[in-house]
Amino acid sequence: MTSEDFRSAAHAAAGLVADYLEGLADRPVWQPMAAADRQALLDLPLPETGTDLDGLLKTVAEQVLPAPMGNGNPRFFGWVNSAPQPAGVLATLVASAMNPSSAGGDHADVHLERAVVRWIAELVGFPHPAGGGLLTSGTSMATIVCLAAARNRAALRAGVDVRAEGLAALPPLVGYVTGETHSCVRKAAELLGLGSRHLRTVATDAEGRLDTAALEAAIAEDRAAGRLPFLVVASAGTVGTGAVDAFHPIADLAEREGLWMHVDGAYGAFGVLDPVIAHRYAGMDRADSLALDPHKWLGVPVDCGCALVRDTEGLRGTFSLVPSYLRDEAAGSLGWFSEYGTEQTRPFRSLKVWASVAHRGREGVAADIAHTTALARRLGELVEADPALELLAPVETSIVAFRYRPAGLDGEELDRINRELPAAVQLRGRVFVTGAVLGGHEMLRACLLNATTTEADVRLLVDEVHAAAAGLTGRPDTSGPA
Ligand SMILES: *Cc1c(COP(=O)(O)O)cnc(C)c1O
């Protein structure tokens, strides 16, 4: 391959990508793949001989780009998957061309990661001591990083070096979550040997927020039984309804009881940038650690999570294998990122974060966030005004939890219809929404992350729910006049 071959194929690839992005809004949001197309991918034979770049692009154009997940489309409201920032898409190409390992050393990617981690902390108003965090594959990994630091601190306070001795030398460490806490916390607790049984579920109030009186009672009970409470996990935007915990009372209690306060802000932490809802986040900056996902509301192309911590030396003491007497000489006073987390060879994630934020500036990012929260509140109003729909939680951030409930539909049938509705809506191809279970009830859950989504798009979502429901129930379409 000559450099001319690469240059011309790169131009062709850029054209394909631009066409793809430009055409997204005009195609079905998602369609099931034709069985033959799916099988063709599954059965791709390992090629004996090579294919030139143009040949590879032909396969991409014919077999890959036509079958997207749908999350680039402004009418995609599923899960927590955003459209990619175009600036971040370009940065991905550059980052892979440089292909460093951002473990440490003196090259641009390492220093840029220090800067963008600080930017992320500044965007959400979290304290940022030098070295106070790193980029990860997502919040699942960021949570493992943060909870490992929490475990290490709790053990040290109990006089045990858990890195050397393991957990056997300690009484059971107990952490507190709610029924709305994301499953990645349980996964982290299991992997860290804490045992999911020692992750206690604390009651929530009517708005889905952690009930601090219940937390206090649970802590007392665990102490009386000889267990060691060490962690409370709060949410800056639950995945089910987007609820934000009341952080100050949790932080007060955590301080009094010596608990590590971790905040899961994977989806919702960036909501603090919207002045209309910023007050809900008061006290988030008091957490010991905050995990969040630039690859969600910020639109940084997947993957990119971030772990932020208050005590950088504590984090380094959890992961570093560099003897302390070598640290400064080895890599400058902050050392290597590989001393603060699980990965050794690390990708150049910071360039796509830098591009996705720098292209819009703080103002542009905040405007995008505010647009989506306003649209979510609008959708909440449409749902409330619709006699066949029921809003199941206040719209606190940009998630709208609701269900289809026309007069006369109840019991088992109500749950069955709502369980089947998301797939029925998806198959129609005009909007994409997913489902969840809240308080034992099947529901629909629309998550707004895309700043190009319009009010017409959310109105279409309501219409599509009615149309799909009519197909499932055999009742006439219950939507009102358009
Ligand atoms: C997405 C999400 C996670 C998991 O993050 P990944 O980036 O998928 O690993 C955790 N918590 C919440 C609230 C989320 O929305």
UniProtKB/TrEMBL annotation:
Keywords: Aminotransferase, Decarboxylase, Lyase, Pyridoxal phosphate, Transferase. It comes from the Bacteria. GO terms for molecular function: transaminase activity. The keyword Cell membrane does not apply. Its cofactor is pyridoxal 5'-phosphate. InterPro entries: Aromatic_deC (IPR010977), PyrdxlP-dep_de-COase (IPR002129), PyrdxlP-dep_Trfase (IPR015424), PyrdxlP-dep_Trfase_major (IPR015421), PyrdxlP-dep_Trfase_small (IPR015422). Belongs to the group II decarboxylase family. This is Aspartate aminotransferase family protein.
